[in-house]
Amino acid sequence: MKPILKPLFFIFLGGVLTYCWINLIAGPVVKDDQDIPHGVSETTINPDNILTTSEAITAATDNDWRDVDPDNTLYMELENRRVIIELAPQFAPNHVANIKTLVREQYFDGLHIIRSHDNYVAQWGDSNEDNPKSQGTAKTKLAQEWERNWPEDMPVTLLKDGDIYQKQAGYAYGFPVAGDKSANKIGMAHCYGMVGVGRGSEIDSGNGSSLYAVTGHSPRHLDRNVTLVGRVLIGMEYLSSLPRGTGPLGFYETPEEYTRIITVSLGSELPETDRIPLQVMRTDTQVFKNYLDARRYRKEDWFVDPAGRLSLCNVPMPVREN
Fold it and tell me: Whole-prediction pTM value?
């Protein structure tokens, strides 16, 4: 080896050995500017305290469940099928109010499911663009409500795993939410079963007369771009199994492909005998946190290597009939 290269070689070798010692003995070094998931914190988990998902749900007492408000529940009747949607006025009060107006004035009755986009959404509304159905006294345009202020007293159970789309993510009032506490902003997230308001290019062009449900992967890129108004509680198996549309974006190309909506009603305006007394697990309790851990550290015998991590949309919200 040439004399001038020997010092460089030993400097290089010393650097490699130092790096190996730091990582193998002292542990990895995290730089101040390294991109790490928001909200991640190290915790010590005792495996004996982890329940299976079934055990976590069974452990819930009556106090760990909340009644679904019939006045914020939509019953959408299809042919031999029923879809029940819980609305979220906590996050989109103006859109929810407008949807209720449309429902009370029977706007959706006789309309159709007009789109089934594979691994994405199912959408319903008026297919007749040339001679659209009157929307009655409902407002035709509304300002976006995809985020709102984040008050100190909002009961948000945050995920300790972080979120790649927002600074924080978690659950509030039974819905998946994400936001930035430092910016005082929070909104619902596009997880499976969530219901949103279709709109055009103009931000205020959506009013609730065209709605969609997420039927595939969680399109979180739509967060802060489309107003969400609630979540399907019952009937996702119907919406997710609709024949796929062959037109652009999954729209049906012929009326024969449509699924007819017989009627949409508010639960509070149905006879009590026609309602289903549903309950959703509360998301502000220790029992719900235990349920999150059960989803995070899967204790079931089938799992060989539980992930130990949990994404916002990988938590099916427990629903039961009371």
Answer: 0.86
